Every structure is written in structure tokens, then in C-alpha cells.
Amino acid sequence: AVVSTQSGHYGRDYNMIDRKTIPQQYSRKPTNIISWNINDACDRTLGDKTLTPDFAEIIKSCQIFCLQETKKEVQFSEFRCFNQIRKSSRSGGVCIGIHRSLEKYIKQLKTGDEDIAAINLSRKYSGMDKDLLIINVYDYPENSSYKKRINEDGTKPSTLDNLLDFLGSQRDCEVLLAGDLNARTGNLNFVCQNEDWEDHTESNTCSESRSSKDIIVNERGKRLLDLISCSNLSFLNGCMIGDVIGDFTCLRYNGSSVVDYIATSPHLRKQIRKFTVMPFTNLSDHSVVTL
Asked: Which of 44, 45, 73, 246 is deepest in the core (most CB within 10 A)?
């Protein structure tokens, strides 16, 4: 992730950062959904993170999880896990996990992009008028060697292009978009004025309607803002109870940033009571974000 207050791409040496232990919040009543860039399921010091009690405690605090940068398949016995792993690189990787009690209400969807995973959660479970579309995205930094290698001639659609196409193909559903987009959007957001999915237009504009400790807007951030505007979505970061100051979601020895987001459609947003960026742990350089 691009995290410094200056532009650029940095390595993953974050062991020098003194982090808190697993916070007590994870031992409280389970949250519904978490999103988390785990920065590799395997660690040189911890080994397989998914086998550690601290990691398991975080996962068991939710009914649905969206993990990014897994770099391998992730499995938990209590969850149905939908993994997407890059075929040509040991990088990236996304996983959506659904608690086994919800298994009969879900359907995996094809997105056409190995960095985008999606499932449909039936309205029969949620009680809403429409099904819920949950999308999990990991968009690698723009200047990464992986991005350059797979798009040497500059003709390959970007992850955001593919995400926009996929969103456009899904109709009559509520949307929850989660992930590490490696995009910095400052305090900008699109606040939906019309709940009708069919009425959104490309002329929608964004405004300074959320708080953020990260004041930078980069090019990827501008494209992401265009995407949520066109798709009639809005960020929860920095504008919900639990994150009124817009906490950093990524912490490195050389800087911090907000690059991990949850965005939703208008009606779904009204059903959400709280959005929280959890304290950092020794398991990743990204925070868990929860609903």
C-alpha cells in the first residue's frame, strides 16, 4: 500500500513499529462484517497467521470477513471461504468468508478479475427488500512491479475499470464494497442523494463530507471517487459513529494513510449503526475495519 505522506512505494519492513496487542473489542459481541488487509497469511516470525489464537479471535468476531493480500488460500472450519489467488504471482489474493450458518443464503459471483471477489447474500437472510452484493477488492499499488509486468503495453483494463464494469452489470441489489484500494481520497466523499440505483449519473460530484487524518488525494484516489460517484456509493470512513475523525488504516515506519475502505449504497448505509477502524496489531500493517 502507498502509505507515506509523500508519494511513492515502500517496502514491507514494519517490525520496527511498536503495536498494541489484540484489543479487548474483539472479545465483545460479534460484529457483522470485517475487512482487513492481512499482509500475507504467512509471516517470517509468526508462521501461518491463520493458526494463531489472536488471528482466530479476530475472525471469530464476525459473521462475514473480507481479507486482502492473503497470498495463499485461507480456510477456517466455521466459515465457507471463497478464495481468489493470482495465478502468475505470489502476491495479492482476496478471500470472502461466510459463517457456515449463512451458507444457504449465499452465491458466489464471477467478476472477471482475480483481484475482485464477490458474493450475493439473499434478502431472505438480511430482511431487506433487495439482495446484498458484497465485493472484496485488492488493488495493487500503481507503481508496483506486478502492475507493470501484467500491463507492459498499457492496454489492459485496470482493477478499477473491471470493478466499474462489474458494478454496472449488477442490478436490483444493495452494495457493500470493501477492500484495500491503495487509493488516497483525503476528506472527499460522494453522498448519495437518490436511493434508486437506476437514477445515478456520471455527473454526480464529490464533496468534503467526511473527516480524514490522511489529507492527500492521489490519482488513484480521484479515479476511485469517480467510481463511487458513478455507482451511487459512498464511503463510511470518517463519517460514521466509531470513526468520526477518519483514522489511518495503514501504518508504516515511514508514514500512514487511509487506503482501506468500506462503501455502501444509500439504503444500506441507513441500516449501519457503526463503522470502526480498530487499533493496529502485530499481525499486519493494516487495521481491521468493522461494521
From this structure: 246
